[in-house]
């Protein structure tokens, strides 16, 4: 009997989870036994505060916890487990690595999801928190797999295709926006197109991804450029590419079109 489709998303901040695999989650929510576990290392209390949002740096963390809950309600799939690790935003790289690995490993062993999704070594934006939680999750996944049992079949890293990155930067140059520079922290970082192992067409549920993103009001200025329409945003999130960190896709094998394909 096939295992039910289950996924654990392990990221650094509220809103990191709102893209990358939110469309895939929407597409599988009605699968028998589907289970979605969300692990957030920090509450994002050191993030920016967009104009018009009635919070202060002292209350931002609590506000963003509520935004996270609202986002998944708007998306339509509420995590069955929404775990907050409680570390300080911006200081995750200073946390003892073994401690962080142990905490993530404990959750992975309790849940034993088929798929674990996190950040790769580039953190997508080079954010040191992203890189820290991604590295800890990779190691936690490796160690959890040493314990016999179900699940833990695939580890994936969210990614941006280099060709898409270049297309976005072409538009940014033409419109006078700041061009993404992958050598600068907080700027997007692409991976070569040939490194992409999975690309999911999420166009049928892209409106749900954007509905969730729109609830992250405090981070509006970080998540989208001024003047970007909802329709444009939906097109941006209509594809979800990722790198399969484990197991590696064999050379010559076709690109997968679903996070759970073949499991």
Task: Give the key terms.
263 residues; seven-stranded mixed β-sheet; 16% strand; 8 helices; 7 strands; alpha/beta; single chain
State the low-pLDDT regions, or none.
none
Strand residue content: 15-25%
Radius of gyration: 18 Å
Mean pLDDT: 96
What is the 3D shape? globular
Largest sheet: 7 strands, mixed
- In whole angstroms, how far apart are the ends? 11 Å
The chain-level structural class is alpha/beta
- What's the β-strand tally? 7
> Order of helices and strands, N to C?
EHEHEHEHEHEHHHE
Can you walk through the features of this model?
This protein is an alpha/beta fold and 263 residues long. The chain contains 8 helices and 7 strands, in the order βαβαβαβαβαβαααβ. The chain has a 7-stranded mixed β-sheet with strand order 3-2-1-4-5-7-6, with helices on both faces. Helix 4 (128-145) links the parallel strand 4 (115-119) and strand 5 (154-158). Helix 6 crosses helix 8 (230-236). It is globular.
């Amino acid at each position: 009997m096939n295992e039910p489709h289950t996924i654990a998303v392990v990221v650094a901040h509220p809103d990191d989870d709102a893209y990358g695999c939110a469309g895939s989650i929407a597409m599988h929510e009605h699968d028998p036994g589907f289970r979605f576990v969300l692990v957030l290392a920090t509450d994002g209390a050191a993030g920016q505060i967009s104009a018009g949002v009635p919070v202060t740096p002292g209350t931002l963390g609590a506000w963003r916890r509520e935004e996270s809950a609202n986002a998944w309600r708007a998306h339509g799939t509420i995590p069955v487990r929404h775990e907050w690790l409680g570390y300080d935003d911006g200081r995750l790289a200073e946390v003892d690595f073994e401690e962080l690995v142990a905490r993530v490993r404990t959750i992975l062993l309790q849940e034993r999801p088929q798929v674990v999704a996190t950040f790769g070594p580039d953190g997508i934006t080079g954010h040191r928190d992203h890189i820290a939680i991604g590295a800890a999750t990779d190691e936690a996944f490796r160690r959890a797999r040493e314990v016999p049992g179900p699940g833990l079949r695939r580890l994936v890293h969210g990614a941006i295709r280099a060709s898409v990155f270049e297309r976005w930067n072409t538009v940014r140059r033409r419109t006078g926006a700041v061009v993404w520079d992958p050598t600068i922290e907080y700027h997007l970082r692409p991976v070569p197109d040939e490194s992409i192992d999975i690309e999911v067409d999420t166009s049928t549920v892209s409106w749900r991804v954007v509905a969730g993103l729109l609830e992250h009001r405090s981070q509006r200025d970080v998540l989208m450029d001024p003047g970007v329409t909802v329709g444009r945003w939906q097109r941006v999130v209509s594809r979800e590419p990722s790198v399969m960190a484990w197991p590696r896709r064999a050379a010559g094998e076709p690109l997968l079109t679903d996070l759970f394909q073949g499991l």
